[in-house]
Amino acid sequence: MNLIVAAKIAWAVGVVSWWLIRRPFERKVKRERVVDARDRVREFVLLSISTLGLGITPLVWAVTKALNFANYPYSPVQFALGVLVFLFSLWLFRRTHKDLGKNWSVTLEIKDTHKLITEGVYRYVRHPMYTAFFLWALAQLILIPNWIAGPAGVIGFGTLFLFRIGREEQMMLDTFGDEYRAYSARTARLIPGVF
């Protein structure tokens, strides 16, 4: 099998796996009453930018020849590394959803029964789901040998992260106060002991 075709298949399997992981959690949280939802229009725009980078642009690369002009030489090592990073991102993505349970949401929301989760992967970082998405973006960068579709995930999700993280942390402070301050003091945002 051609290595580029293998990369396209690996990317597609990763995206479908992401959806399969998230789907059952989406169903569970729909029943939860939201008591605080912030910046709905802004959230829609940011999620659209992230989807453009992590989904639409690489999909265009995978199913058309429109971006072939930006392809570059590709190696089996690059393919293997991209797959490994994607697998780790999927594991972390699932673990994060499992640890959050009904406290999870796509947008900035606080549920009626919302709790501050500090166990599981949340013991080490405050935003492991963002870490999982950054790992997906990194996997895409490594896995897709194209100067446009490869980095599109880092740019798309990076934009969402940059314009959302401060507002999310403020919402958590508004909701949990000193408990969140203490939690923030002992955990990193994305990478344990680093950032």
UniProtKB/TrEMBL annotation:
Pfam family, one: ICMT
Membrane-topology descriptor: Multi-pass membrane protein
Cellular component GO terms held in the UniProt record: membrane
Primary location class: membrane
InterPro entries reported in the protein's UniProt record: ICMT_MeTrfase (IPR007269), Isoprenylcys_mtase (IPR054851), Metal_cation-efflux_comp (IPR052527)
Molecular-function GO terms, alphabetical: protein C-terminal S-isoprenylcysteine carboxyl O-methyltransferase activity
Alphabetical keyword list: Membrane, Methyltransferase, Transferase, Transmembrane, Transmembrane helix
Gene3D superfamilies: 1.20.120.1630
Membrane-crossing residue ranges in chain numbering: 6-23, 44-63, 75-93, 133-163
A single GO BP: methylation
Compartments, as annotated in UniProt: Membrane
Entry keyword annotation includes Transmembrane helix: yes
Protein name (record): Isoprenylcysteine carboxyl methyltransferase
Lineage: Bacteria, Pseudomonadati, Pseudomonadota, Alphaproteobacteria, Hyphomicrobiales
